[in-house]
Specification:
Rossmann fold; 8 strands; alpha/beta; globular; 16% strand; 328 residues
């Protein structure tokens, strides 16, 4: 997930100015408080006079607003009509994160949840005087946040598009995520998160690279070249990664309400759910089953690209999103 950009990169995209919103102290679902919370974001297009044309796009695991620009979201979002606001999710190293917090640095950073991410994004929307967004769209952990938006703030938007996201992880997902955590936590260089230099934990990167792809997709890949890329990938802070993976592990939109059936009844907006049948990182079946509960439109991509299959250049995805945004 944190290397999604390497696979979805199509052409050099326009880069917008990085903004930072100061949101004050943020009470968390854990009972802790995130001190002096700040959130990064980038804007493409302009808000209309009524401030009703915003499309929020929260970042994926390990990704940033800047990296999302490389996926060419304007292939599906017309920024002459819509104001695309790409948001750095908590823990991504741009917004409040273990790596950049002055008062809660590294392993002293409080536990955050997907719900906390959405709460901070709602505060940003309030600061931007957006009472109702036109749509919310997200990929991977961004899609997971989109599911949370649907139940946390059911009146905030009429359109939600989670892409390779899930309303809750499966046992298979959790096994993968916990294995990833154990590899990181058991690495001596990690030092319980109290390292002075971000360590290069190759085994964890190897596992994540296996998760985002499929065996069929790698039939013609040169192993030495692949391994070299994995070994050289040390761009994201490990405390940041564990903070976000813990949020994903604890995600379950149905838990506060007694199950997914009850959570589905809270949702008022229309949903377009896009899943990848061969996804080895975020199991597609919970999202596919949830689509029945909310009578959502469902697009299922079946190709060996796995978690990376539903790119914005895929005709079925592009056509589906454009039609969904154009519908009354």
């Amino acid at each position: 997930m944190n290397r999604l950009i390497l696979f979805l990169l199509l052409t050099q995209s326009a880069s917008a100015q990085q903004h930072t919103a100061q949101l004050g102290d943020l009470p968390l679902t854990s009972g802790q408080t995130l001190q002096s919370c700040h959130l990064g974001y980038r804007i493409h297009g302009k808000l209309n006079e009524q401030r009703t044309n915003a499309i929020l796009f929260p970042s994926w695991y390990g990704g940033t607003a800047k990296s999302i620009e490389y996926t060419n979201p304007w292939l599906v979002i017309d920024t002459t009509r819509f104001c695309l606001i790409i948001i750095d999710a908590l823990g991504d190293g741009v917004s409040s994160s273990p790596s950049n917090s002055e008062t809660q640095h590294g392993p002293d950073f409080p536990q955050i949840s997907i719900k906390d991410m959405v709460e901070s994004e709602h505060r940003l929307a309030q600061q931007l005087k957006i009472e109702k967004a036109f749509a919310i769209i997200g990929i991977s952990m961004g899609g997971i946040q989109t599911f949370q938006w649907a139940v946390s703030y059911p009146d905030f938007t009429d359109r939600l598009i989670p892409i390779v996201g899930s309303p809750k992880p499966t046992a298979y997902d959790l096994m993968l995520y916990h294995l990833f955590k154990r590899i990181v936590e058991n690495d001596s260089a990690f030092n319980h998160g109290r390292y002075t230099k971000n360590p290069n934990i190759v085994a964890a990167n190897m596992l994540m690279d296996l998760g985002i792809t499929t065996p069929t997709d790698r039939l013609t890949t040169n192993y030495d070249d692949w391994m070299k890329n994995v070994e050289n990938n040390n761009r994201v802070d490990w405390n940041d990664q564990l903070t976000q993976i813990d949020a994903v592990i604890g995600h379950d939109i149905g838990k506060p309400y007694g199950g997914l059936d009850a959570a589905a009844k809270r949702i008022k907006g229309k949903m377009l759910i896009i899943s990848s049948l061969q996804d080895h990182l975020v199991n597609p079946h919970p999202a596919m089953e949830f689509s029945k509960l909310v009578h959502a439109q469902l697009i299922v991509i079946d190709n060996p690209s796995g978690h990376l299959a539903p790119g914005f250049s895929v005709p079925e995805v592009q056509k589906g999103i454009k039609a969904f945004l154009a519908a009354d």
